[in-house]
């Protein structure tokens, strides 16, 4: 390619960006040491703005219900400099307590499964410092649309609209007015 003309050599920083760029037809890719360092949070603390590095152990998301391995991974992330440690899909409050008590950094959990039965106060008492909602808000919005569609297609009524935000209020919220 160097002998046949000028070409673009994009620089992916991880496997995902490499796949995306390759899928767009680029014949060659090269790594970027800075991009890789940025994605790993290295030399990054020197930036002129604050940020938080969150590291996640997705064992329970991927069918590997090994709490010991999850804690081991989170401890390694803490040693590598992560600010917050995240283990989504923990199966119980006992698992949450075990993860939190095994780490010396703030722990994030996902509000899902059995944790939906707990309040912010209860999760905080277990040692949790941050709670993510994941896809809960967009799923709640989709549920409202499906419920409205069922009402429209079924009895043909408009009761769902009674609790909807008004047009002017919606506009004000979204326009920043």
UniProtKB/TrEMBL annotation:
What Gene Ontology molecular function terms does this protein carry? catalytic activity
Matching InterPro entries: ICL/PEPM (IPR039556), Pyrv/PenolPyrv_kinase-like_dom (IPR015813), Pyrv_kinase-like_dom_sf (IPR040442)
Q: Which domain of life is it from?
A: Bacteria
Q: A Pfam family this protein belongs to?
A: PEP_mutase
Recorded hits in PANTHER family, A to Z, give: CARBOXYPHOSPHONOENOLPYRUVATE PHOSPHONOMUTASE-LIKE PROTEIN (AFU_ORTHOLOGUE AFUA_5G07230), PHOSPHOENOLPYRUVATE CARBOXYLASE
Q: What is this protein called?
A: 2-methylisocitrate lyase
Query: What is the species listed in this Swiss-Prot or TrEMBL entry?
Result: Streptomyces chattanoogensis
**High-level lineage:** Bacteria, Bacillati, Actinomycetota, Actinomycetes, Kitasatosporales
